[in-house]
Amino acid sequence: MDSVDLNVLRSVLEWRRAGQRVVLYSVVQTWGTAPRAPGAMLALREDGVVIGSVSGGCVEDDLIARLHDGRIPADGPPVQLITYGVTREEAARFGLPCGGTLRLTEERVGDPAWVAELLSRCEAHEIVARSLDLATGEVVLQPANKTDVLSFDGSTLRAIYGPRWRLLLIGAGQLSRYVAEMARLLDFEVLICDPRTEFVYGWEEQHGRFVPGMPDDAVLTIQTDERTAIVALTHDPRLDDMALLTALDSRAFYVGALGSRVNSLKRRDNLAQLGLSQTAIERLHGPIGLHIGSHTPAEIALSLLAEIVAIKNGIELKQKKPLLEDV
To answer: Three-state DSSP class for 124?
Structure first.
């Protein structure tokens, strides 16, 4: 779940607690090419203020117009379906690509207790399924798995919500600053651990949150899960390997360490001597990143994040060249 959707739900909760009427729109189905994927949300307040997005802009304008021209009556059904882009003319009118069709649920938010619970569970790094009964407007929250996806059978919408993806950086050096800035643009929550106080100067709070302690403790402190990536960037094995020993036995979906092919092979040998299993060692990404001929810190950061995002999105990367060939 990205921060845009989290902000939509936070606003819904704030507005309802203030006594304002709120309509929540969710993309439930698309045909052809659509601007937003199923699950995208937009909240519309009674005065026309919106947060979130379900299209490129024209659909949002029409949703606001529906509020002002009375097409959303206060005593209407709790949930109804709205479809945009059925005809070529309508697709053109609402800025949808040729052949694109978008179906939304229009949901009047009553008691916001489910919103508060959903946000709380996401902040606790749980994955949650929200089932919405279109006939009654009833909402039920249940535990979900990372492989679950949004489903809609015409009468019940089951949407999946979860915590933001996280990136823990071991080391606060120059490369980490580039990685943190790019990761934030990609909507990762950025965490940094570096016990060397000399490297902390100049970090702004908005670029990431520092986790105190030694690297191995930091991996445990953040309660690493399947939505966490961990990258060791200090180039100091005393710090990097401490983190890796814990990270490679964790549930992190990506664990990597900065270094050349030769140094990466040496690191694997060191980890084996320290007692780490071969299965855990094989999870290590090193050298990190996709091969783009990178040399500068910014290019290395781009390469690294391209690899992390590909793995996050389930893209099977081509096998890297065996380390032994470069020794």
So the answer is: coil
Distance CA 149, CA 137 (A): 21
Q: Which of 161, 177, 197 is the endpoint of a domain?
A: 161
pLDDT tens digits for range 249-307: 999 999 999 999 999 999 999 999 999 999 999 999 999 999 999 989 999 999 999 99
Amino acid at 99: G
- Angle between the 297-312 and 174-185 helix axes, to the nearest 10 degrees? 40
d(CA 313, CA 319): 17
Beta strands in 134-198 (DSSP E): 139-143, 151-152, 156-161, 166-170, 189-193
**Collapsed DSSP state (helix, strand, coil) of residue 236:** coil
For 69-89, the pLDDT digits (tens) are: 988 887 889 999 999 876 666
Q: Residue 175: which residues within 8 A CB-CB, separation 6 or more?
A: 233, 258, 297, 300, 301
| 85 contacts: CB under 8 Å, gap ≥ 6 | 32, 91, 94, 96, 100, 101, 102
Cβ burial of 299 (10 Å; 0-12, 13-18, 19+) is middle
Residue 171 near residue 231 (C-beta atoms within 8 A): no
**How many structural domains does the chain have?**
2
Report yes or no on whether pTM surpasses 0.85: no
Residues 7 and 154 in one domain: yes
Residue-range definition of the domain harbouring residue 34: 3-161
